[in-house]
């Protein structure tokens, strides 16, 4: 009899987006003519930039010719892409990285989920609440957490750092020791950012406590304001304590193409039970070379095209398009009397539900009355209750229409 990994029994029954899909399907079957606008799931709607598709086609042609065919590539990614990443995403920020500190992958979801496996199972982890669910669920699967406490809506033995209206959606430092800290800025779901000074407090905490910050900056490209750190490595000392996850998914429409990268500086150390230091970079290399065979050559060639002058211009246009949607949503909701967060340096708008309405209740009401679908805050954690997430990744037409409907068909 094959036994299961019983940690999986601790997970909630269904992934948030499956429950949303179930409710939409039920509504559609009862209201077949309803014109539903989806501003819920965080997928993009703009196509890949032309510079990207051209580079991908060229690379595909190379793969079809004996002289230019490529088989397995380096597990960590091709140097031609890593060089571009360092040159464009880090050097202008005063951050110098070596080629072997950047690991190209097929997604920030897999990287943020997989990274925990190189840490000891007894480590104490901290997450913000609300949170991108992958950090929590991957640690649950690994057995690093206790059981789910249904009443609290939280797992035992995870330290939750509430992000609420009271603290402006900015988490406070933990009051007890933690070893692994997941931070995501610009944040999904709240759309909020930290200043350099605020982020420095986290780096200082991690240095004092020999903790490691797992910093997800999948939405870095959406930062508009000066003074908001573009990478955690802009912060003094971060190279000793932080790992950074980035993705081309939202930056350049790669959600269906799959390419991302993770930066693991050589200074970051983890310790064995005798207190001896080990390089996290070396452990991640060992893990990746064992379990991952790299991202396909055409996809990496496509990702490198983002950094050409045309690629940069085209990516900028796409991001401007989404950020104009964000402005429309943010200002529209504010005019309609809702309280909103985010949407300035991020493609997410986090709104407070009216009259303390539960977030699933608001989901149903919005779908029924305005035929607009968003994401209930409760799906991101106990402190997401009473909030609702809308995304700027829709088409302009749908975004304008959705806000118009919220203004005219809903009372806030
Ligand atoms: N990290 C955050 C915070 C996200 O919101 C998402 C996607 O929604 C990801 C990572 C996943 O990115 P990828 O498409 O690269 O797997």
TrEMBL record:
The modification N6-(pyridoxal phosphate)lysine is found at residue 250. Pyridoxal 5'-phosphate binds at residues 72, 108-109, 132, 188, 219, 247-249, 258, 293. It holds the Pfam family Aminotran_1_2. Its EC number is 2.6.1.83. InterPro entries: Aminotransferase_I/II_large (IPR004839), DapL/ALD1 (IPR019942), PyrdxlP-dep_Trfase (IPR015424), PyrdxlP-dep_Trfase_major (IPR015421), PyrdxlP-dep_Trfase_small (IPR015422). Substrate binds at residues 15, 42, 109, 132, 188, 293, 389. Its cofactor is pyridoxal 5'-phosphate. GO terms for biological process: lysine biosynthetic process via diaminopimelate, diaminopimelate-aminotransferase pathway. The keyword Transferase applies. One of its GO terms (molecular function) is L,L-diaminopimelate aminotransferase activity. Homodimer. Involved in the synthesis of meso-diaminopimelate (m-DAP or DL-DAP), required for both lysine and peptidoglycan biosynthesis. Catalyzes the direct conversion of tetrahydrodipicolinate to LL-diaminopimelate. Belongs to the class-I pyridoxal-phosphate-dependent aminotransferase family. LL-diaminopimelate aminotransferase subfamily. This is LL-diaminopimelate aminotransferase. It comes from Desulfosporosinus meridiei (strain ATCC BAA-275 / DSM 13257 / KCTC 12902 / NCIMB 13706 / S10). The gene is dapL.
């Amino acid at each position: 009899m094959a036994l299961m990994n019983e940690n999986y029994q601790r997970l909630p029954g269904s992934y948030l987006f499956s429950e949303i899909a179930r409710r939409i399907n039920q509504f559609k079957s009862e209201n077949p003519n309803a014109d539903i606008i989806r501003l819920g799931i965080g997928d993009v709607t703009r196509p890949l930039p032309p510079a990207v598709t051209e580079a991908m086609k060229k690379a595909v042609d190379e793969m079809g010719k004996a002289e230019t065919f490529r088989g397995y590539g380096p597990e960590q990614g091709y140097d031609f892409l890593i060089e571009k990443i360092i040159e464009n995403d880090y050097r202008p920020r005063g951050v110098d990285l070596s080629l072997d500190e950047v690991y190209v992958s097929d997604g920030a979801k897999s990287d943020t989920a997989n990274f925990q496996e190189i840490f000891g199972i007894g480590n104490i982890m901290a997450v913000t609440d609300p949170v991108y669910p992958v950090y929590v669920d991957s640690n649950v699967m690994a057995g690093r957490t206790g059981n789910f406490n249904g009443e609290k809506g939280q797992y035992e033995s995870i330290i939750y750092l509430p992000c609420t209206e009271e603290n402006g959606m900015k988490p406070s430092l933990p009051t007890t020791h933690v070893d692994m800290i997941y931070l995501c800025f610009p944040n999904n779901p709240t759309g909020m950012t930290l200043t350099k000074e605020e982020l420095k407090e986290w780096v200082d905490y991690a240095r004092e406590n020999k903790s490691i910050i797992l910093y997800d900056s999948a939405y870095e490209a959406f930062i508009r304001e000066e003074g908001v750190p573009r990478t955690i490595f802009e912060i003094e000392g971060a190279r000793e304590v932080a790992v950074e996850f980035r993705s081309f998914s939202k930056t350049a429409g790669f959600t269906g193409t799959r390419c991302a990268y993770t930066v693991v500086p050589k200074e970051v150390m983890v310790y064995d039970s005798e207190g001896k230091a080990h390089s996290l970079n070396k452990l991640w290399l060992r893990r990746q070379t064992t379990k991952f065979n790299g991202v396909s050559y055409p996809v990496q060639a496509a990702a490198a095209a983002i950094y050409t002058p045309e690629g940069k211009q085209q990516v900028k246009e796409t991001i401007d398009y989404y950020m104009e949607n964000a402005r429309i949503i943010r200002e529209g909701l504010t005019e309609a009397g809702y309280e909103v967060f985010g949407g300035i340096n991020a493609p997410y708008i986090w709104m407070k539900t009216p009259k303390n309405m539960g977030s699933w209740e608001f989901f149903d009401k919005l779908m029924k009355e305005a035929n607009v679908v968003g994401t209930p805050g409760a799906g991101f954690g106990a402190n997401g209750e009473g909030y609702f997430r809308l995304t700027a990744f829709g088409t302009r037409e749908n975004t304008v229409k959705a806000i118009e409907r919220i203004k005219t068909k809903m009372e806030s």
